[in-house]
Amino acid sequence: MNLSLEQLHAYDPEPYQSGEVSRYLCCFCGEDKAHDNAHRCLTVRVDGVWHCMRCDERGVLKEYRKHARVSAMQHAYHKRMGAVPTRTAGIFE
Questions:
Q1: Given its phi and psi angles, is residue 55 left (phi above 0), alpha (psi -120 to 50 degrees) or beta?
Q2: How many separate domains does the chain show?
Q3: Residue 22: inside a domain, yes or no?
Q4: Residue range 12-27: average pLDDT?
Q5: What is the distance between the alpha carbons of residues 57 and 70, in angstroms, rounded to a whole number?
């Protein structure tokens, strides 16, 4: 899915912040839900990976795609060499 941080903030300008995760109202689920913290089902991690727990849409925010591609290539290289770096371990597996 094609989604940017700007689009998320336009749809839900006041996300719920919890540590390294932000929760937004999902713009893909439709308008048939209340606009409160209990219904902020789209989570965004600090690395730009997002996932809606309600409609199961997921992806990487546009602003983070280049970094995610590079990290995925580095991870694949290190995996082939038999040594997965700690900072990416588990993210792409």
A1: alpha
A2: 1
A3: yes
A4: 93
A5: 23
Q: Is 46 a member of any domain?
A: yes
Distance from C-alpha of 35 to C-alpha of 16, rounded to nearest angstrom: 12
CB-facing half-sphere around the CA of 78: CA atoms within 13 A: 16
Helix/strand/coil (H/E/C) assignment for every residue in 67-83: HHHHHHHHHHHHHHHCC
Find the domain containing 25 and state its range: 5-62
How would you classify residue 78: left for phi > 0, otherwise alpha for psi between -120 and 50, otherwise beta? alpha
> In CATH, what number is assigned to the domain containing residue 20?
3.90.580.10
List, for residues 61-74, the tens digit of each pLDDT value: 999 887 655 555 55
> Residue 22: beta bridge partners?
17, 44
pTM: 0.67
